[in-house]
Design brief:
Shape: elongated
Number of helices: 6
Distance between the termini: 61 Å
Mean pLDDT: 81
Strand content: under 5%
Low-confidence stretches: none
Structural class: mainly alpha
């Protein structure tokens, strides 16, 4: 579904507005950030896996890093580098990528516990 929306965003955006500027910005957003929603979905799934492994703090930190990276990257793109809205959307997509990468790392860095050996008296 994400690929359909990313490839044909006008089908989706037309349900909400007929304004040409809304369509232009919405299309741009979905083309840039739409594919990254797959990684955001992966991150959300792994968020619950990390809770099962007792690594909820790592998941919370990954989400905080995602939000800070997206916001800082977006603000830098707009205010410091004067790049425009497309680069703001790219910063959001990069935040999703970072989120997924941090949670993949959190899941795969879990150590398998050593088996408890029965003590003989």
């Amino acid at each position: 579904m994400q690929w359909l929306v990313a490839l044909r965003p006008g089908l989706w955006i037309g349900l909400f507005s007929d304004d040409a500027e809304v369509t232009r910005l919405g299309t741009l957003y979905l083309r840039i950030v739409g594919p990254a929603y797959l990684l955001f979905g992966l991150g959300l799934a792994l968020f619950y896996v990390t809770q099962g492994f007792g690594r909820a703090v790592a998941a919370m930190n990954a989400n905080a890093v995602r939000m800070v990276a997206s916001a800082a990257g977006g603000l830098a793109a707009i205010y410091w580098f004067d790049l425009g809205v497309a680069d703001f959307f790219a910063a959001v997509a990069v935040g999703f990528c970072i989120y997924a990468a941090l949670l993949v790392h959190a899941v795969f860095s879990v150590k398998t516990p050593e088996p408890v050996l029965a003590r003989t008296a």
